[in-house]
Amino acid sequence: MPGPLPLLGLRAFVEVGQAGSMKAASRRLGVTPGAVSQQIRSLEGRLGFALFERLNREVRLTPRGRRLLADVAEAFATIEQALDEQALNGQALARTAGSGVVVSTTGAFAATWLVPRLGRFTAEHPGIEVQILTSSELVPLGGPGEADVAIRHGLGEWPGCEAERLLQPRLLPVGSPELLSKGPAIRSPGDCLAYPLLHDAIAEDWRLWLRALGADYRDPRVQTGARFSDSTLLVRAALAGQGLALLRDTYVIEEIEAGRLRVALEAPWPAAFAYYVVSRPGVRRRKASVGRFVEWLMREAAAGV
Prior knowledge:
Layout: H1 7-19, H2 22-29, H3 33-47, E1 52-55, E2 58-61, H4 63-87, H5 94-97, E3 100-105, H6 107-124, E4 129-134, E5 149-154, E6 162-167, E7 171-175, H7 177-182, E8 197-200, H8 205-212, E9 227-228, H9 231-239, E10 244-248, H10 249-257, E11 262-263, E12 274-279, H11 283-286, H12 288-303
Parallel strand pairs: 3-4, 3-5, 8-9, 8-10
Antiparallel strand pairs: 1-2, 5-12, 6-12, 7-10, 7-11
Helix pairs in contact: 1-2, 1-3, 1-4, 2-3
């Protein structure tokens, strides 16, 4: 690539690749979506190949764009690390010196799995302070004031990030007995689309579940239906017969045993659909506290207690 490095274009490319949309990237960069789009097109023109596929309101990385993102994202993370160190006259910031860990996850996962176990980590590493941020979305990672790691469920595909499988909980498609008795029979994952679907705030679980089971996850009906910011509200909507919900088994086992909810389909569980520890490339090596926290998470998950 002759000439000076197109740093603005590369930065815009990283943000769009990680956020999955021009609009989200523009908010992080503090510029308009049009400016971000212009930077991306200029970079593509200079490289001589497309970095994204444009799909209505979203963009998707091309295979070459996905490979480039992994390298460029790590390079920017290294630059940010160097600047952080120089900002304190060579003394690493607390986040890079290994004194703390900022963790992003959903409120439901924090309450039911992470927080009850956190005392064991504190006892093992009393000098490492853990801060938990709860959000229904994958928040920005790795920058100043942002999370070091996130715990999210999906298929392990977060462009520009490292993802290591942590747990494999079972999500069940459930509905009220009255709703299922009046509606059409459900014999395959795709049959669930004949019913209203209930979603969490991100509305990704049904799409990922259908995709993992080989069903038509591009069907427009996958993205329709009510959304709820809290798992408790999602359970209540299912109990009220408003539609089918895809919920972690531990959240609904009592309702199923009591007959208030029914499993709509007993499907084999897709191996790729799991909880993952997600982080920017190399952060676990650069920041000792993050590496220790992730190691502890893996031990806790393996222990199954």
